[in-house]
Design a protein that fits this description.
Elements lengths: L2 H8 L3 H14 L8 E2 L1 H8 L3 H13 L3 E4 L3 E4 L6 H23 L2 H20 L2 H19 L2 H21 L5 H16 L3 H23 L2
Antiparallel strand pairs: 1-3, 2-3
Helix pairs in contact: 2-4, 3-4, 5-7, 5-8, 5-9, 5-10, 6-7, 6-9, 7-8, 9-10
Length: 220
């Protein structure tokens, strides 16, 4: 995790920090797909109290990353290769909407966030660090959501983005990081130029790239 992310998370509520920690473990398969764990085990791993961890579990359950089984533990969502393409299909429209809105409503705060995400992504590609790349990708998604100023679209997109990152970690790893970063940078540049049409087109191209990887992962 980069220094900016660490500083940001340090100032967040405990429930948000618990969520981010558990989400990261799920995305990087540290919590293995299809495995079963317990609330107590997650409290120990995250190092936060029962209430924030329980709130994080509820959010992850709503997002489809974890399921709560009464008296049987917490099941981490499995990974079915064919689901990745379905996730991208669901993302495409909302990602284009967010990109176009971000270009239209761009603020000074969002500019800083976008530029920071771009630097973090570049550094991750140079280092070949998949985990840091996906953290930078998450920061970029949050920066675009901030710029777009549409909480309904952002709330719809966020779980799909997390699922997609998880599939990337499982099926792509370091392969294609530079190509993916290039598409992300093109998207950032279009938003910073306040070009709605270009931003929407770049978001669509990025989804096309991800869907091609998803088809390969599924053997289609």
């Amino acid at each position: 995790m980069d220094q900016i992310s660490s500083e940001r998370e340090a100032g967040e509520p405990a429930a948000v920090r618990a969520y981010r920690a558990l989400e990261r473990m799920i995305v990087t398969l540290d919590l293995a797909p299809g495995s079963v764990t317990t609330e107590g085990a997650l409290i120990d791993r995250v190092g936060l109290g029962r209430t924030p961890v329980r709130e994080a579990i509820q959010r992850l359950s709503w997002e489809g990353l974890m399921s709560v089984r009464p008296r049987a533990g917490l099941a981490i969502a499995p990974l079915e290769s064919g689901d990745w393409a379905k996730i991208i299909d669901a993302r495409r429209g909302v990602e284009v909407l967010l990109a176009r809105s971000a270009a239209r409503w761009l603020t000074a705060e969002a500019v800083v966030a976008l530029e920071s995400a771009a630097r973090a992504m570049h550094d991750a590609v140079v280092a070949g660090d998949v985990g840091s790349f996906l953290e930078a990708d998450k920061s970029l998604d949050e920066a675009v959501a901030l710029a777009a100023d549409n909480r309904f679209a952002a709330q719809l997109a966020a779980p799909l983005q997390t699922h997609s990152r998880r599939f990337w970690y499982r099926y792509r790893g370091r392969d294609g990081l530079a190509e993916a970063a290039g598409h992300h940078v093109a998207l950032i540049q279009a938003i910073l130029a306040r070009d709605e049409d270009a931003a929407g087109a770049e978001a669509d191209r990025l989804m096309t790239l991800l869907r091609s990887h998803a088809r390969t992962a599924a053997g289609w």
